[in-house]
Amino acid sequence: MLAKRRCLWIWRGLWLLMLSAVALSVRAEPASLITVYTAKKIITMDPTLPEATAVAVRDGRIISVGTLEELRPWLSSAPHRVDQRFADKIIFPGLIDPHMHPLLGAIQLSSVWITPEQWQVLGDNIPATKSPESYWLRLKEAVKQDANSDTPIFITWGWSAPEHGPMTRKLLDERLGTEKPVMVWQRSAHAAVFNSAALNWMKLKESDIGEQYAETINYREGSFTENGFFEVAVTRLASYILAPKFIDAGFDRLNQYLQGNGVTTVSDMSFGAVNIQLEVDNYQRNLVDKQVFYRTVIVPDAYKVALQNGGLEVSFNLLDERLNKPSLVPQIVNGRRVKFFSDGAMFSQMMKLHPPGYIDGHKGQWLTPREVFLQQAQKYWDAGYRIHVHANGDAGIDNALDILQAIQAKTTRPPHSFIIEHYGYADDRINRRTADLGAAVSANPYYLYLLGDSYSEVGLGYDRAGRIVPLSGLVDRGVPVALHSDFGMAPSKPLLLAWAAMTRMTVSGKEKIPPRALTVDEALKAVTIDAAYILGLDRDIGSIQSGKKADFVVLEKNPYSVKPDQLREIKIIGTVFEGRVHER
Q1: Whole-angstrom Cα distance, residue 108 to residue 366?
Q2: Which neighbouring-strand residues pair with 253?
Q3: Nearest 5 degrees, angle CA 520-CA 548-CA 97?
Q4: Comparing C-alpha atoms, which of 444, 433, 537, 439 is closest to residue 484?
Q5: Contact 319, 304 (CB under 8 A)
Q6: Which region holds residue 425: left if phi is over 0, alpha if psi is between -120 and 50, else beta?
Q7: For 398-409, how does the pLDDT look when each residue is reduced to its tens digit (9 = 90+)?
Q8: Which distant-in-sequence residues (6+ apart) come within 8 Å of 377 by Cβ?
Q9: Are strands 440-443 and 481-483 parallel, antiparallel or unpaired?
Q10: What is the full DSSP assignment across 7-31?
């Protein structure tokens, strides 16, 4: 018995020595430097601690928020420095644009813009082109200026039929009188018209067009819309538009643009839609290698990836393996997210509407066959993926909600894992149904600003145009709402998007606010913490809180203190991305 006790004492002694050694080794490890940023005010978007004046950051994450005095327990035990460069500014959570397409944005920024509305991009003032005459004048000038360039095809973005008139292959051939390939990219970015030289350059013949594209391709008119554009035309353009010579300068401009607008998180809401390897190469070259100050959340287009990669089972395994691997770089975020498409685009009036439909009687387009949509959505839903669905018209949104109801009936999951993207036109019945089924919404509030006037006259009519992006009916029912740009459907300026949701004002200055617009708090949440929640990233980003990544935007003024119309004018001083400072 005594021997056993002696043995236990020996083991206890050895165990205490081991613990002491471990403790000594932990204490001996040098602590990383803590950087404390001070500000006139820190708006955290954390309801448990709404405001502060100091935030401590170590290794890219926030370790404490409060006053300098309240941070002292951390600072007294570790090396630190106090950075006071923002002492007279406002620190706010890094802004989130939860629905973007960085590749698409870089391509657009590499093309010539002729748009129906004015744009300010990196100091360039792009005037509004409002009439067919002015559009053709600018197009002819741009083609003439490009005549001696070494680009194999001239690409212009922004054509819009309501303002610029009809566009056909014959019109391009006759009115431009050029042998150079020309692509006129519609304002929605979901359609294009090509001249004869462009069709020849793409080596695309009418006999190459399958019957499934009868509604989306009119070869004789050079018109490619929706699936016909993405699945036929874009695949033939990919090797050129995704090559470094064409796209890299556009990426440089996009990176400057996003960082200058205070954006620290975006998503690619259609990854893999063109060519997975070319897209990966672009992100490596233009985001990772350049160490940009924002992250891109990868959200594959499940339907198009399946088309290009052997069907559902093969593509699911391909994506599941890729998305479940943690990213090793801060610029890319993987995870279980996919996207589907319900109906067509808002800017091209290809969204699907319930009766009475469009004023001129056209029908819009479905983008995914219903049985395929249901089968693929169920597969990813059952595997625990967040599902994002592009849906614009009231019929398109109902179709997406029908899919949610069906997959939820088979496999019940917590609410808000199914997100309606854009939410272009809906009534209060759809708002209620969205809430009842537990969906969330990521909306483009700029639709109303840009389209509210013209769609009152063309397409929808006055009453329905007033229901474009009706967000208050969602918020009042507890539906999480985020605001996005879908750049260039709107500027990727989250404070501008918040202003649009707060004012519900059109280009002409008319207000379409019944029953109400969003409050300033609701709108700012929709570009910070609620946008993070929509992406499933609210554990890491969206507010200034201990444990989260150190993503901040530095503002000249407090967005809660300015008048609503001044929100979009607040000067952005710089950003902090995972602890790295980027000043404008």
Answers
A1: 25
A2: none
A3: 45
A4: 444
A5: no
A6: beta
A7: 999 999 999 999
A8: 340, 387, 403, 407
A9: parallel
A10: HHHHHHHHHHHHHHHHHHHHHHSPP
213: DSSP letter:
G
58: which strand partners? 61
For residues 272 and 420, what is the distance between their CA atoms, to the nearest angstrom?
20
The per-type count for the chain, helices as H runs and strands as E runs, is: 23, 25
Bridge pairing between strands 154-159 and 182-186: parallel
> Do residues 29 and 53 make contact, with C-beta atoms less than 8 angstroms apart?
no
> CB of 346 within 8 A of CB of 452?
no
Cα–Cα distance for residue pair 334/337, rounded to 1 Å: 8
Cβ neighbours of residue 575 under 8 Å, at least 6 residues apart?
Answer: 94, 259, 262, 263, 264, 293, 294, 551, 552, 553, 554, 581, 582
φ, ψ (nearest 5 deg) of residue 233: -70, -50
Compute how many other C-beta atoms are within 10 angstroms of the C-beta atom of residue 573: 17
Q: What mean pLDDT is predicted for residues 497-526? A: 95
Amino acid identity of 324?
A: N
Cα separation of 562 and 498, whole Å? 13
Burial of 450 (0-12, 13-18, 19+ CB in 10 A): buried
Task: Note the pTM of the prediction, 2 decimals.
Answer: 0.93
Do 559 and 495 meet the contact criterion of CB atoms below 8 Å apart?
A: yes
Q: How far apart are CA 165 and CA 92, in angstroms?
A: 44
Give the pLDDT confidence of 20-76 residue by residue, as tens digits: 433 333 344 567 999 999 999 999 999 999 999 999 999 999 999 999 999 999 999
Query: How far apart, in whole angstroms, are the C-alpha atoms of residue 131 and residue 162?
Result: 9
CATH, range 107-241: 3.10.310.70
Q: 300 - beta bridge partners?
A: 271
> Considering all CA atoms of the chain, what is the largest pairwise distance in Å, rounded to the nearest integer?
108
The end-to-end CA distance of the chain, in Å, is 76
- How distant, in Å, are the alpha carbons of 98, 405, 413, 418, 451 from that of 437? 22, 7, 11, 9, 29
Question: Residue length, the chain?
Answer: 584
DSSP per residue, 31-76: PPPEEEEEEEEEE---TTS-EEEEEEEETTEEEEEE-TTTTHHHHT
pLDDT, one tens digit per residue, over 106-162 is 999 999 999 999 999 998 999 999 999 999 999 999 999 998 899 999 999 999 999
Return the pLDDT at 30.
64
The answer to whether 73 touches 105, Cβ cutoff 8 Å, is no
The C-alpha atoms of residue 200 and residue 437 are separated, in whole angstroms, by 49
